[in-house]
Specification:
mainly alpha, Arc Repressor Mutant, subunit A
Length: 345
């Protein structure tokens, strides 16, 4: 008779480790650091909370400094955060506190649950799935759980619509920024400006886009968006040098007149010199040009005077040389006496 054994496949005492941790972080981490991370993950959902540094040290048979080094390492990696009391020997259960929900910590502690976006409420929505698909197409990769959580943060915390988030990603990618850190900074900036619609977002960026395309047109470049190095130059001229569009276009015009081709480096040299000279308006450029003309005329006058002095000096040298040649006393001969003396011999 065959023996039938029934087992319960629901494992309640299991710690789940994401593949992303294994693929991206584990190989480059110290083995002791990985142990500390796994212990934290193991006790993340415990009712008693996460163990203290001293307790983790006892579990792993290592020193508290070893545990702190591991915590600092994972903190730098952005996988967790913790608070360290000043006296490790008096550590309490609250000494280490995971305060960020990352891809490896999908079951946050009860006290942190309120601050973590509820992804499940959005993943079931059709618009959310479509947005994830569109974002992956723009970025050219599959989004990680952390990036998906960031988009959820845009939904739930910032209150952005799916259309606005899609335009946000499109805008950043078109400007050659695919980092989610940068995308989040732009999203927070829009939130501070109370931008809640795609139209409002476009209006806030139209001036920047206008400047970019005006500069490209001044160089005779049409039919394409500015490249990443070109955007870097334009941002410097706008944000660092604080030049208005008319000043930048004047520099572009002078570039084309001088070398007859678009060259952002050449234009940078012009604008950098104007910036160092304290130019703030077209009037300042006119005054600077006038000073340059005066300086050039003075140099030309000085050069002509120097050339004239050199010519006079050369003429005097030649005249003096002629005089030396003529300093020899001329000799006179009595030809009759010489002939007589010759005949006598």
């Amino acid at each position: 008779m065959t023996k039938l054994t029934l087992t319960n496949n629901i494992q309640t005492n299991t710690t789940i480790l994401e593949n992303e941790f294994i693929d991206r972080y584990m190989a480059s981490a110290n083995g002791e650091y990985v142990k500390v991370y796994l212990v934290l993950l193991r006790h993340l959902g415990d009712p008693d909370g996460i163990p203290s540094v001293s307790q983790i040290a006892d579990m792993l048979d290592c020193t508290e400094k070893d545990v702190l080094r591991a915590l600092n390492y994972w903190k730098k990696q952005g996988l967790l955060d913790y608070e360290n009391v000043s006296a490790p020997q008096k550590a309490s259960a609250s000494e280490s506190t995971v305060s960020q929900n990352t891809f490896a910590f999908e079951n946050p502690a009860p006290q942190e649950a309120a601050s973590v976006p509820n992804i499940k409420n959005y993943r079931s929505r059709k618009e959310f799935k479509e947005l994830i698909f569109v974002a992956e197409q723009y970025l050219g990769k599959v989004l990680s759980i952390t990036e998906v959580e960031t988009i959820t943060y845009f939904f739930e915390t910032l209150g952005m619509s799916a259309d606005l988030i899609e335009y946000l990603i499109e805008y950043c990618v078109e400007n050659n920024h695919k980092s989610f850190h940068y995308i989040k900074k732009v999203a927070l900036s829009w939130h501070e400006q109370n931008i809640t619609t795609v139209e409002a977002a476009k209006n806030s960026t139209v001036l920047y886009n206008k400047n970019c395309y005006c500069i490209l047109n001044a160089f005779g470049i049409k039919g394409r968006a500015p490249a990443a190095p070109e955007i870097t130059f334009i941002k410097r001229w706008n944000d660092e040098y604080c030049f208005s569009l008319d000043i930048i276009l004047e520099a572009c015009t002078r570039t084309m007149n001088s070398i007859h081709k678009p060259d952002f480096n050449y234009t940078e040299s012009i604008l950098k010199r104007w910036f160092e000279k304290g130019v703030h308006s077209m009037a300042d450029i006119t005054a600077l040009d006038a000073d340059y003309i005066k300086e050039k005329e003075a140099k030309d006058k000085k050069r002509k005077a120097l050339h004239s002095n050199r010519s006079a000096s050369n003429a005097n040298t030649v005249r003096k040389s002629d005089n030396k040649f003529n300093n020899f006393d001329s000799r006179s001969y009595d030809m009759d006496d010489l002939e007589r003396r010759l005949l006598q011999q």
